[in-house]
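User: Hi! I'm working on a homework problem where we have to compare a predicted structure to a textbook description. Could you give me the structure for the chain below?
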Amino acid sequence: MHELRRLRSVEALVARVRAYDWATYRELFTPKLVTVLRRGYGLDDLRHDATAGLTVAILALPLSMAIAIGAGVAPGQGLITAVVAGFLISALGGSRYQVGGPAAAFIVVIASVGAEHGAAGLMTATFLAGGILVVAGLLQLGTYIKYIPGPVILGFTSGIGVVIALGQLKDFLGIEGMVPNEFVERLEALYELRDTFNVSALLVGLLTMGTIVAIRRWLSRWPALLLAVALASGTVWLLGLEVETVGSRFGGIPTTLPQPVLPDLSWAMVQQVMPATFTIAFLIGVESLLSAVAADAMAGTRHRSNMEIVAQGAANLASPLFGGMPATGVIARTGTNIAAGARSPVAGMLHAAFLLLFMLLLAPLASYLALPCLAAVLLLTAWRLLELVHLSRFLRSAPWDDRLVLSATLLLTVFVDLSVAIAVGVVMAAMLFMHRMAEMPGVNFGSGPILLDDVVDGLAPRSVIMSEALPESVRVVEFRGPLFFGATARLDVALKALDHWPRVIILRMREVPLIDSTGIDVLVQLARLAAQHGCRIIISGLQEQPREALHRYGFLRANRILLAADSLAALTKAKTLLGGNEAE
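Assistant: Happy to help. Predicted structure tokens:
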């Protein structure tokens, strides 16, 4: 018998696989590049994409190096990431205009992983995160990332902004000495090293920030970051200022891509970096899909979320092979790409090609870039991440539970750890949501010709069953709201409080949109009590999800439950049962 059941299960699985709509599945995982090329791609499209790609590359050149330095790695790793991962994200992605590379949101976690596990641990964590994302995308889990609560996202991005800003003060002020990564310890160390403050570094940083703000305000079409960094770094060189540069600290940037090397995938290393791996994968997924949604809003397109997740995974599998960092779709670069007139994913691929060309031709000049300039770039980025206006409005006007989630996530990001902040924020949001949902459901008992609480403000009853006089041996029980584990304790108590048992109970479930296994257990208990008292159960208005769940559980057949489309049909069946006709 067991063998026969196993064979039937295998046959059922094979039948489901054959019946699956594989054509639709393949379409879901078709890169936007393929879609664009199928529809036709001409020289005019290439010209627009080349212009947009060059514009984004000019933006990404200083920003990629600044993010790498802020994360505690060499600036060349930021450029390598933008080249390798940026090319694959555009070539394989599910968004028409997405441009990828290193993102400021990763600075905190990269610095933490690098400090704890070294460069080898960071490469391993990035590689494993890429694999997780590929699997998640193929399993179509990318759709669920959009359900991450908004207060959690706002909380950790604002917290990241605070941490990034504090992390750049050392270079921005020209302070010398070792500074730890922890927030409080970093503040204490900066205060203790205040005597090494460099006025020249501060002036160079302020010059960079002022130039960026001025260009963005009055010359918005010009590449503000590149011009500001070049101007301030040129000033340092011309005046011979005692300010640290990329060359003096890192020895310059690579002139080409290194040979690919597989990261350390030993079991000991994998165990060590696994918590950071999930944090990196989560951040990549959230950041990339937020960017894709923003691109859709700006350009009127529609991205393929699961294909985008697969592309992000492939890019993060490739990036550490060349010594790169975690990468994701970046809203600033994607928005610049759209504004510059991009026509297709080719623009993002050309952005990566232009960056590689810059590495080949301009690497010697990069050694002269002053570190306070790059710190100024990240300080402005941190300001945008902090979103003070949005944050203050949210804390003033949002519901108390959302404010609690945001505050907890922000404070944990700043003072503890990003992965802890995300985990606690999501769990808190889920628990508070379940609390709100648990407050919604109710159980109302009808004990005669009218159902309790069924008449509102003297209006007519909501259901036609209320216009009928119920027989003495019929009782109506109405459920409202989802029957899930957060709500069933109160329902269980209410059901057991039935003072007397009729011969027929009508369960009105039209207002129950879903039910889980705990909700089914409550109904099972009700059915057992009803059977002990010789009472039959009729369920009316059963919606699709509860109907399917109860059928799959075997509840309806096991307890001889009658189903009715509406209250009148349920009342008719009840009268038939009372008349002695128990035919189903």
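For your comparison, note the following. The longest helix spans residues 267-299. Confidence is low (pLDDT under 50) at residues 447-461. Good luck with the assignment!
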